Amino acid sequence: MSSAAHNFTLIGICDGELDSKRYQSSYLTNKVGGSPDWLPVFSRQPPRCRRCSAPLAHVVQVYCPLEASPYHRNLHLFACLRAECCGRSESWVVLRSQCLEAEAAAVQAPSRAAPPQEATTAWCDNADDWGVEGEAGDGWGGCVEKKTKARKEAPVLETEDNPQLCEPDISKSFQDLSLAELKDIPVFRPFFISVVEESDLCGEEVDLEHAQELLKEYERKEGAAVGQLEESSVSGEKYEKSRARHGDVTFSRFMKTISVCPQQILRYCRGGKPIFISKPPSNMAQLVSVCNYCGGSRTFELQLMPALVSLLQRKDGSTEVELEFGTVVVYTCTNSCWTSGSNSAVEEFCFVQSDPDQQLFK
Predict the structure, then answer these.
(1) What is the DSSP letter of 47?
(2) Which among 57, 221, 69, 192 has a CA at the least distance from the CA of 131?
(3) Could you give the CA distance from residue 107 to residue 90 in angstroms, rounded to a whole number?
(4) pLDDT value at position 182?
(5) Mean pLDDT calculated for residue range 95-99
(6) What are 59-83's pLDDT values in tens digits?
(7) Distance between CA atoms of 357 and 355, rounded to whole angstroms?
(8) Which candidate, 114, 6, 120, 117, places its Cα nearest to that of 67?
């Protein structure tokens, strides 16, 4: 996949609470929390934590079809809320599900659509309308959502005619869940996610003012200006005197990148590069395993951001924060391999980093 085709990043921003009494969400909806809206041919039971075997809570749902593909396509992210599992990559699961448009139409009537300002928004390729039709930036500091050009993606890889590609099977994660356990699965309050192209946010005064406050707070705590932490491409200086407590300049770069819109809860750039909140392992390329189903490579697709943590509120009214993270980076099969007619989701790869200064985003 050519990196030249991925020259912009899409930003996900909270767009208000999803009131189930007024709007019916579906697999076409981008949202935080709530119950996952599976494609109509899929199992509706949640996966389990690899570490403690507890059922996982649904965190984010993203509708992200690929260009020129006949498939609907979703990513669902789940996490374990137990204290001993919080912040561990093995306690998160990301599932990719696909379904032919014709199959979905055959088994399910179209859902009642939400209003334009809270409408489902595709993250890539087939999406023509990237934002609201009402006033620009309503409720979000003037973050304007505009139409953008479709991007080229790797073609969907049909596996039904290729005997070397096995059927996705994560059934073990769905087995042995009792009714009591299903009732005990925590559910976060659902919120719509709206989409804006990152380049459209440049120059937004309200966002930049907020960003400057965050950066000043960071500098006060670290005892060094963020600008001093930038690595020089000429001298190669190591900045040991002005080095941040975190041990490198990664965090300051993370802060500067998100400064145009600190309230972003998700970044999407399939085929692009993630931004890490702390220095990633030196063998990160090896940690991102190949696709378990076709053996092909994986590519970065999206990441969850620290501002999402404050939105993860229990529907039962509990105010206790049960899930904290710095960023959750998701890599998916480059070919988006799939077997037509499958009713089992494909598990992809995610990498979790904790936030060294979580309090700055609360």
Answers:
(1) P
(2) 192
(3) 34
(4) 60
(5) 94
(6) 999 999 998 899 999 999 999 999 8
(7) 5
(8) 6
Single-letter amino acid code for the residue at 323: L
Tokens of 44: 């509706």
- Quick: pLDDT tens for 194-237: 999 988 886 544 445 555 666 666 566 555 554 444 443 334 44
Signed CA dihedral, 220, 221, 225, 226: sign only: negative
Of residues 326, 324, 282, the one with CA closest to residue 303: 326
What single letter denotes the amino acid at residue 50? R
Report, as an integer, the average pLDDT of 326-348: 93
Q: Order the strands of the 10-17 sheet from edge to edge.
A: 346-347, 92-100, 71-79, 57-63, 31-32, 191-197, 10-17, 266-268, 298-304, 327-333, 349-353
Q: Which residues neighbour 69 within 8 Å (Cβ) at sequence distance 6 or greater?
A: 125, 126, 153, 155, 156, 336
pLDDT score at 349: 97
Residue given tokens 């309308």 in the structure block: 129
Q: How far apart are CA 220 and CA 199, in angstroms?
A: 29
End-to-end Cα, the chain, rounded Å: 37
pLDDT score for 17: 93
pLDDT value for 185: 83
Helix intervals (H) in the chain: 101-107, 179-184, 205-222, 250-258, 284-287
245 close to 224: Cβ distance less than 8 angstroms: no
Q: What are residue 158's DSSP bridge partners?
A: 338
